[in-house]
Specification:
six-stranded parallel beta sheet, 185 residues, single chain, Rossmann fold, 6 strands, alpha/beta
Length: 185
C-alpha cells in the first residue's frame, strides 16, 4: 500500500527564513532564503558555525510560520485516502526539545479534526530511507533524502527551494506536487 510521507522543515514550516532572521540579527547581515543555495548553508556559515546555533529562543520551533501552500499540501495528502505521516530527520545534536516542539507546531497548525492529531503522525528518523519503502511517496526539500528514498523504490517529490538546486532530475513547485497528489485519489 502506498503511504505518503511529508517532510516538515522546508516543506511545511518556514525554517530557513526564521533561522536567517536570527543569523542576520547576530551578524548584522541581511541574508534572505534566496541567498541559501546549499542545504548546509555553504558560503554563509563560517568555520565552526552550525545551523542549530541559530535556533533560539526556546520557542523557535513552535513559532515557525507555515508556507502558503502547507495546509493545501496536507489536505491533498489526506484527500488521497492513503496513509500519510510527517517524516522529519533530526541530527544527533538536536534534543528532545526539538522533537516536542515539532509535535506542538504540527498540532498548532494542522489540527482540524480532534480525532486525527497531527503529532501522532510524526515520525523522527536520521535516515528517511529506513522508513519509506517501495511504492511510498516522499515529499522533501533535501536532495540526499530523495536520492536514498529512490534507491528503495519510493516515488519522490522535490519541492523546489533555493537551497536544493543541484543534480536532481525534477524540482517541483507546490502546485505541481498538489496536482500529483490529486491524481492519486
Amino acid at each position: 500500500m502506498t503511504r505518503i510521507y511529508i517532510d516538515v522543515d522546508g516543506i511545511l514550516a518556514q525554517f530557513v527564513p526564521a533561522l536567517l532572521k536570527n543569523y542576520n540579527q547576530k551578524h548584522g547581515t541581511s541574508l534572505t532564503p534566496n541567498d541559501v543555495t546549499d542545504w548546509a548553508f555553504k558560503g554563509i556559515f563560517k568555520h565552526g558555525q552550525h545551523w542549530w546555533d541559530y535556533t533560539y529562543p526556546e520557542n523557535f520551533w513552535t513559532e515557525l510560520e507555515t508556507y502558503s501552500w502547507a495546509h493545501a499540501l496536507v489536505a491533498a495528502a489526506k484527500a488521497t485516502g492513503k496513509p500519510y505521516a510527517f517524516l522529519t530527520a533530526l541530527q544527533d545534536v538536536e534534543d528532545r526539545r526539538s522533537v516536542m516542539s515539532r509535535k506542538a507546531w504540527l498540532d498548532k497548525h494542522f489540527t482540524v479534526d480532534p480525532t486525527d492529531i497531527p503529532s501522532k503522525r510524526l515520525i523522527v528518523a536520521q535516515r528517511k530511507e529506513l522508513v519509506v519503502t517501495e511504492g511510498d511517496i516522499l515529499i522533501d526539500d533535501y536532495i540526499k533524502n530523495l536520492w536514498a528514498a529512490q534507491k528503495v523504490g519510493a516515488t519522490v517529490f522535490l519541492l523546489a527551494q533555493p537551497w536544493n538546486q543541484g543534480d536532481f532530475p525534477e524540482r517541483m513547485t507546490p502546485e505541481q506536487i498538489l496536482t500529483a497528489l490529486q491524481v492519486l485519489k
